[in-house]
Amino acid sequence: MTTADSVPTPTDDAIPPRAWLALAVSTIVVFLVVIDISAVNVAFPSIREDFEVSNSQLSWVLSAYNITVGALLMLSGRLADSIGRRKVYLPGVAIFGIGSMLCAVAPAAGWLIAARVVQAIGGAITLAAGFAVMLPEFPPSRRGTPIGIAGATGGLGAVVGPVVGSLLIDVWSWRGIFWLNVPLCLLVLVLGPRWLSESKDPNATGRIDPIGVPVGTAAVGLMMFAIVQSETWGIGDVRVIALFLFGLALVPYLLHRCRIHPEPLIQLDLFRYRSFASTNLGVTFYGLAFTAGFLTNSLFLQEVWDLPIRDVGLALAPSPVLSAVVSPITGRSADRIGHRWLLGIGCLSLASCYLLLVLLIGDDVQLWSRFVPISLLGGLGVGLTVATWSSAGVSDIPQAKFGVAGATFNTLRQAAYALGISVVITLIAAAGDDTTLEGVKWAWLWALGAYVVAAAAVMLTFPSGSARDRATAT
Fold first, then answer.
1. Taking 50 as the threshold, does the pLDDT of residue 6 lie above it?
2. Domain 17-197+265-469 is of which CATH architecture?
3. What angle do CA 33, 112, 240 make, to 5 degrees?
4. Is the pTM of this model over 0.70?
């Protein structure tokens, strides 16, 4: 594998003022997306009680979002690189805002799930084009810095999400969580045309593969649908197996199309970059634990320890506060020393958090003496990893390929999110009709194992040194 065969040796590390303005716009979107995800996790029991549905049914509020995003990310990234990142990004923000508004007024669980699909269409576009619309403004050797800042913003959103979400639920309802996105989306739509430059792949012809795109979208969608439905139908159900195998059977033909078409859905040559291939491997295992772990913690505090929603929000806040402090420092460090050990240590810190939860947490409520201090290990791990994965994935990628590279990376991450949620809900349900400490501990063990594998994968396969060192050596 090569590492940076198309990346020029950096000669100018100065960051122009316009780059910071573009970063400000993109971080607003990161902020609102993270708020939405973290707050919905806290609101899970409240939504279930309001609509009187089971955990398995309501898991579609999370899973429908993840499936849709996962199925559309690669197409969104391809379109962004081909017709222009800003042209794609701003409509995506608008769709996300409309979807949020529809979620806020949903009269039933089915309507809420459908609105989450609309929201996810916008989420797929913003995820695919978000970094691509901002990173070209920064010199290649300084990409870790803006991504670290974006990660800090995400950490702040993770703080605001549970706290503000729990307060909104307490004084109003879970619907306020979705209304919160609407003014932020409007702000981005006002500032974006002024502060974001247009960019695209100069070699793109604009001709999207008319066969590979639907085949790839169907492959991802069918496999993720099978994973999610395994909660309800059972992992051995013939429908689950058939859907998954059918989606899997489409993959070889998709890869064939990607080899022969001039504008493929997936650019396979990206995997020649060792950093990109390693990041995709590591983040897949990381994703199996990330969202699933946060959901498990929220369910545990509300349903095993039976804490008021306001206390839950306050207990979940210290960990993201720490991650928001650590993330920009990590971004600057990744620019200087590289990503491998930062990611490995971060994943092991997260694994240690869940190990201690399994060993030290019981039925007796020990919120501030045990749970919160242990969760700070997780906050440290998130600060070291959540934005670092993104900068690692594009560290050696040519600027023209940012959109499709980010989309490929995020597709695997979203698929892992969906699978992880399905697994922990199944583990919790297998332990009893209600959420029990035994079921929660099985879910924590799942997160522990996934983080350990992610750490091993990235430490063994990611290239050493910084992107600048590798570019210079090449």
1. no
2. Up-down Bundle (1.20)
3. 95
4. yes
